[in-house]
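Lab notebook: predicted structure, single chain.

Context: the supervisor wants predicted structures on file for every construct in the current expression panel, including those that have not yet been purified. This is the next one on the list. No modifications to the sequence; it matches the entry in the shared construct table.
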Amino acid sequence: GEYCKEVDTVILKKAWLPDEDNIEYVPIDTEFNFEISPNSSVDKGPCFQKDNYRFGKWIKIKSTDFSTKNFFFTITKPEQDRVDVFFDGTYSQRNFTNYQCRVHYWLNTSQFEVSGQFPKISPFPDDTENVIPFDVYFFVSVRGFQTVNVTIKFWQKDLHLWPYTYEFSQSDLDYLAEDLSRKYVKTVPVETLGNYVVTPCTPYLYMKAVFFTLTLNSTYSVLVSTKKQNRVTNMVEMISNKVDGKFVYSCAEIWGGVPVGMFADEIQNGILVRIKGDDRPGVREFAILSDDHQTDSEMEISVVCPNHCHEDLGNGYCYASEGKCVCNPGYGGDDCHLLCYYNDKWQVNDYNDLCYFGESGCDQYCKCQEGYALKNHFCVSVECINGGIGFGDECILGTEGCQDNCHCNVDSGYITTMNSKCKLATCGNGKIDFDDNYYNTVTKLNSKEECDNGTNCNKFCKCNYSTGIFGYRFCATFAECVFISLCSYIVHEY
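Prediction complete. Output recorded below exactly as produced.
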């Protein structure tokens, strides 16, 4: 478990950086191997950690060893060494009063190799051309009292493509388009696999990036979101071209992850970006950027707005923040097509084999879903047809207020109850509600209610006993009816 222990190998320092005797220089293109153990030196590196003091080793590289714009490295450890290894670096120089964490990677217990990069940027503000030599310092450390063998190598290269952590093919995205409820949820592994970059979209910002591609040529859009965890992330799209044997990147677009505007405080941090499928057909290159070196986030990939919501026809538009089409009256479904049934009217000529759009079991194209049969333009479950209750059914066929699809007739004022029966929405308000289009042969009134909250009146506004002519608002037995009739006769006579 985690515990503290007194050690006598702490490096004594006069400033934030140890003396040069405690820092080992690693030449370019050299595999440098060393061991970290409970016998190693103890210090704290340039990056903040939960437990600042750790067993580790200081190393450095020289900028003059590299002629390219980026430093590249690989760290490995044996598979039997299931130890957390941390690689923390800084461009700050020995004579600087303050230092900055500029490089941070983590090899977890089940990870045995990590490769990364960071740009060759001078730590001197006035040295815009990178002509002043400088050193980059690293502290390689372990968590706890562990022993591990570490091999590290630094190198450079001219021909460079961004390392893509995720590559989504056209078939991957078409799979999402088949069912818009599907989505890919991917970790954005900033701490373990992120690369430090200065992109053409962010030339003055030094951030850690995780790269991915979308191969896209479609009439739908792809929605990319990192809002779930409410962390500030940004996203850029770049275009790569090979010029004179080198890859040259240009900026296509940038999206910020900090909300702005009147309602900014009510909006989650992170990006929510709609990528239109036919804007630039082919492989499109993106990066999620973060200035938090140590915190991973999540990225959700989904498909939205098929056929671009038929915007060209005026049927609707794609509402990215809701992740769906918003359709004009008479249009609907996933892509704002003309609805076959709308506002109680058919909008197509041939509707013999179609169901009422909006009713249970009826899909966006007025076809019954699997497990349902068409009856009088309703989609009916097998259980409903046989006098039972199927999944999603509300009432038993043939009972009051129950439609042919075993759902309560909302248009006629009925609501669903827990008893597989339909109930008038007005039942329970303490009064009889009248309907000129209905005649009740029991109460001899223009009302579907026999009673409402009166004596012997049940929760469906029906009498528990047979009612007589005095069944208005309350229910009476036959004997009560005789008594009331007799009293009425006597009063009338006198």
